[in-house]
Amino acid sequence: MTLGSDDLFKKRREARKQRKYEQRQPRANSFLIVTEGQCTEPNYFRGLQRLIQEKLGGTVDVVELPLIDVHGEGLATTALIQKTEDIVRRANVLYQNIWIVFDKDDFTDFNQAVKESTEKGYHAAWSNQSFEYWLYLHFEYSDSALHRSQWCIKLNKMFERHGIGDGKYHKNEKDIYKIADSYGSVHAAVRNAKRRMAAYDAGTMKPSEFNPGTMVYELVEKLKGYLE
User: pLDDT tens digits, the chain, 228 residues: what are they?
Assistant: First the structure.
């Protein structure tokens, strides 16, 4: 194959991909959730996903079960947005709701990632400093500006107090949603997060400046709507 014909082949292949993308129909009640973490965050949302499927799976008056795809990518901030774009481009459906879940941690491009994801039409379920702050809100309210390692310590104490597992919080806990909702409360987490975020002004504050903070409650509230 000559160089010119090789270029023509590539152009035709890309054109076919574009036509296939344009022919896809939007899927109602569909969620793509792409998380920075590979364990805690995807395990949490998959736990909620299972609960929704269990409740609605045998319901005859539900026209269509919500499609919830969870991807734990192990990528940070702007790299996570690029990965999300790739997943969207390759998907067989047009997702109605696209959410990116990530933490501030020590990344300097945190604010840019929030801005860029919004500009692309995605929802940014960010946490400052970490997802563990969102988990802690299931048990108690706090507005203490702590390092992410300290939130893990506070969760350890909470797990010990309630006699959960071996009394320690583990990032790879598969049933983290069930644990957080059973020993704490997802309703309380949403309420506590709303209370904290009421002080956040997106027009004048950068997400990195609002510590602690979490927008995860917005995604959880939408998903929990299928259970209520």
Answer: 455 556 665 566 655 555 555 556 778 899 999 999 999 999 999 999 999 998 887 654 555 689 999 999 988 888 999 999 999 999 999 999 999 999 998 778 999 999 999 999 999 999 999 999 999 999 999 999 999 999 999 999 999 999 999 999 999 999 999 999 999 999 999 999 999 999 999 999 999 999 999 999 999 999 999 988
**Who's near 31: CB < 8 A, 6+ residues apart?**
66, 67, 68, 69, 95, 96, 97, 98, 99, 222, 223
Whole-angstrom Cα distance, residue 44 to residue 52?
A: 13
d(CA 186, CA 184): 7
Neighbours of 206 (CB within 10 A): 12
Neighbours of 60 (CB within 10 A): 4
Residue at token pair 């047009």:
94
Beta-carbon contacts of residue 100 (< 8 Å; ≥ 6 apart): 34, 35, 80, 81, 84, 113, 117, 122, 123, 124, 125
pTM of the model: 0.86
CB 36 within 8 A of CB 80: yes
CA-CA-CA-CA dihedral for 37, 164, 153, 212, to nearest 10: 60
Backbone angles phi, psi at 121, to 5 degrees: 90, 10
Nearest to 161 by CA among 133, 138, 183: 183
Q: C-alpha distances in angstroms, 173 versus 42, 93, 163?
A: 10, 30, 15
